[in-house]
Amino acid sequence: MDSSAIVRDLFAYSHHHPDEQPKLHQLFEVMRSHRTQGRCIHADMCPEVVVGAIVMNESRNVLCGWHDDRWAFVEGTLVADDTSLLTASVRVLMETTGWFHVWPEGEDQSPLHIDVQESSSGSLRFGFRYLVCANTSDAEITPNGIAFSWRPVSSVGQPALRTAIEARTSSAT
Ligand SMILES: [Zn+2]
């Protein structure tokens, strides 16, 4: 996948969340380095980018999973054929769940949330999260062994995410 798609979504998210720019700085620098060097010079320390869907169904419930004291996503890595991170998150959701009626929510297709985790080796893992709708209430999915369930937005336990979902879904109506 073209790194310009990652940079575009980083810019869009930073514009909406200027207070989070410091945590995203390293990924901006890495993308700049890849472009100017024409290759990766970071070896094992090159950050990983993953995409994940935050799924809302027609009952306005959100698919929630919880794992290792963190919010869990139906997530995966990018492949060469992905045209954007948003479409990659939809692809990963469809591949993981087998659901076919899945589509991006609303006109604003920038990331709903970007979280940053440090791996045991010290490299960073950037999770780009997108709001995606699904025409289902199927909850019998356990991607990566994590149990998920549908819950009202108000019960989403991570305040930053809950606020972001509420803001996006209220502005979309
Ligand atoms: Zn690199």
Written account of the structure:
It contains four helices and eight strands, in the order H-H-E-E-E-E-H-E-E-E-E-H. The model has no long low-confidence stretch (mean pLDDT 88). Helix 1 (3-16) packs antiparallel against helix 2 (21-37). The chain is globular. With 173 residues, it is of the alpha+beta class. Strand 6 and strand 7 form a beta hairpin. The strands form two sheets. Strands 1, 4, 5, 6 and 7 form a five-stranded mixed beta sheet that branches. It has a three-stranded antiparallel beta sheet with strand order 3-2-8, with no helix packed on it. The chain has one domain: Nucleoside Triphosphate Pyrophosphohydrolase. The structure holds zinc ion.
Write the layout of secondary structure elements.
Layout: H1 3-16, H2 21-37, E1 48-57, E2 61-67, E3 70-72, E4 74-77, H3 85-97, E5 102-104, E6 113-118, E7 124-134, E8 148-152, H4 159-171
Parallel strand pairs: 1-7
Antiparallel strand pairs: 1-4, 2-3, 2-8, 5-7, 6-7
Bound molecules: zinc ion.
Q: State the share of residues found in helices, binned by percent.
A: 25-40%
The major sheet is characterized as: 5 strands, mixed
Query: What are the distinct ligands in this entry?
Result: zinc ion
The overall pLDDT, averaged over residues, is: 88
CATH architectural name: Alpha-Beta Complex
Name of the CATH first level: Alpha Beta
Q: How are helices and strands ordered from N to C?
A: HHEEEEHEEEEH
Unreliable spans: none
Distance between the ends: 32 Å
CATH superfamily: Nucleoside Triphosphate Pyrophosphohydrolase
Share in β-strands? 25-35%
- Specify the overall morphology: globular
Integer count of domains: 1
Structural class: alpha+beta
SS element count, helices: 4
